[in-house]
Design goal:
heterodimer, A: 81 residues, mainly alpha, Non-ribosomal Peptide Synthetase Peptidyl Carrier Protein, Chain A, 54% helix, globular, B: 423 residues, alpha+beta, FAD/NAD(P)-binding domain, D-Amino Acid Oxidase, Chain A, domain 2, eight-stranded mixed β-sheet, six-stranded mixed β-sheet
């Protein structure tokens, strides 16, 4: 479980925070803090689908699921059952 | 007298001439200007390879050294690299290579017309068709030519209009219906020293850069190792409202997104700017007694997916089959030619639907490119396999995603959907 969160965090840091000037905590609001924009979510969705071998449906791309590292991790966990 | 008169010596006309000659059907291609001549539409999709193979033209494509096109890449407006696809991921039946070509259309069209002549077409250049001639039963019986100011009639059993957007026969019979949605405008030129991309793997792909204006995008198509075609496309009103000249307009849009600005940083313009406008339409009918329309002369859709030459080749192939059958049965009535229209209309309407959904989705299209579930189906369409609706379930999926995004409160992608109607 910690692995899931850690690998998503690593990906976000590597892909969206190249200068390392923003820290990404579990509860950091990714969109409000402008870590990831709504189009960046594409890359994130694609990363998650490939990394964890899950499928993310279009209706799941909402604020509830993608607001924070915590909520994304929860979404992935629920899919991995 | 030839069995078939073909109006126009672009790809549709030349490929049709080749198919007919191979089947022993005599044909005459009448081309208004002298080739080589310039033309827009420099990128091809891989289904065209099949037609080149059929007519023995593939070796010419290889020997001429046209730039090989292995895939396509899209760039977001905010510039964070690219999303790409490669044709090798989706092998196509009857296509034994994982690339197609970008072409200098002057050279490509000229070679194709020469090839048609080599295979047996009679080619007349520099002569305009004034009108198609009909008998008292409304059967096409030939064409009236303007030869250096004098009128001359040529007769045939079939007339196929391949005159592109000049649409000789569609104009004569008033068949043109302008598209209610697409009214695009393009400004383009050739450049040297374009930075085609930081990734050598995708540098010679076609690159599409999204622009932050209504249905706006830029094409980047490599023509030779040195020369790259760059075109800015947008809804025509975007150009009209800007109230600037085409050159300023082009340069303004090139500067609006980081990736294309970078690509053009050191670019040197080598041809004059050209424009294309008002360009989507369909003819009401593609066939009548003794006549058919092929390629752009039948229907022209937005060029975002480089579909033009593939529609030309596909319609040429099926027009030839229909003509061969009609010559065998002796029935050249509209009814006998109808299956041709049905097939080509179905194929082009899938292209059209794909294009419309694409423009509705715009940036969200990248979701489909990346999606495991939809990627291969998208590739299939992008590679020109559009003639079987059963095999295009992704169109339904695209509609569903649009519906989901529109109906889910607070959906993160809602702001990215454009306002064009999709039904």
């Amino acid at each position: 479980m910690a692995d899931i969160k850690a690998s998503i965090r690593d990906y976000i840091l590597e892909e969206f925070v190249p200068d390392g000037d923003i820290s990404v905590e579990d509860a950091t609001n990714l969109l409000e803090e402008e870590v990831v924009d709504s189009l960046g979510i594409f890359t994130l969705v694609s990363f998650i689908e490939n990394k964890f071998n899950v499928s993310i449906e279009a209706e799941e791309v909402n604020l509830d699921n993608f607001e924070t590292l915590q909520s994304i991790t929860k979404l992935v966990e629920s899919k991995l059952g | 007298m030839s069995d078939v008169i073909i109006i126009g010596g672009g790809p549709a006309g030349s490929v049709l001439g080749c198919y007919l000659s191979k089947a022993g059907v005599s044909n005459t291609i009448i081309e208004k200007v002298m080739h080589p001549r310039e033309h827009v539409g420099e990128s091809l999709v891989s289904s065209t390879v099949r037609a080149f193979e059929d007519i023995g033209f593939l070796s010419t494509m290889e020997e001429t050294g046209f730039v090989r096109k292995y895939g396509a890449a899209w760039h977001p407006t905010q510039g964070r690299g690219e999303f790409s696809i490669e044709f090798s991921e989706f092998p196509q039946q009857g296509v034994n290579q994982d690339y197609v070509y970008h072409v200098d259309r002057a050279k490509f069209d000229h070679l194709l017309l020469q090839h048609a002549r080599d295979l047996g077409s009679t080619v007349i250049q520099g002569v305009a068709v004034k009108e198609v001639l009909f008998d008292e039963n409304d059967y096409a019986i030939g064409v009236r030519l303007d030869v250096a100011g004098a009128t001359m009639d040529l007769h045939s059993s079939f007339v196929v209009d391949c005159s592109g957007r000049n649409a000789v026969l569609g104009g004569q019979r008033r068949l043109r219906e302008k598209d209610p949605v697409f009214n695009q405008f393009a400004v383009y030129a050739h450049f040297e020293n374009v930075h085609r991309g930081d990734d050598p793997r995708t540098a010679d792909f076609i690159h599409i850069y999204f622009l932050p204006v209504t249905r706006g995008w830029v094409w980047q198509i490599p023509i030779t190792d040195e020369i790259t075609s760059i075109g800015v496309v947008a809804e025509k009103s975007v150009f009209q409202e800007a109230r600037t000249g085409r050159e300023d307009w082009f340069r303004h849009h090139i500067g609006t997104t980081p990736d294309i600005a970078h690509a053009m940083e050191d670019a040197k313009q080598v041809t004059d700017f050209k424009t294309e406008a008002d360009y989507s339409y369909s003819m009401r009918k593609f066939v009548g007694n003794g006549w058919m329309l092929a390629g752009d002369a039948a229907r022209f859709v937005d060029p975002i997916f480089s579909s033009g030459v593939s529609v030309a080749c596909e319609s040429a192939k099926h027009a030839s089959e229909t003509i061969i059958e009609a010559l065998r049965t002796g029935d050249r009535s509209e009814h006998a030619l109808q299956p041709y229209e049905d097939r080509i209309k179905a194929g082009v309407s899938i292209w059209y639907e794909f294009i419309k959904l694409y423009y509705k989705l715009m940036h969200l299209f990248t979701y489909f490119i990346q999606s495991k579930e939809h990627r291969l189906q998208i590739l299939q369409l992008l590679q020109g396999e559009v003639y079987d609706r059963e095999k295009a379930p992704v169109l339904v999926s695209m509609r569903e995603v649009i519906k989901t995004v529109e109906s889910t409160p607070g959906h993160l992608w809602a702001q990215h959907l454009t306002d064009i109607p999709i039904d």
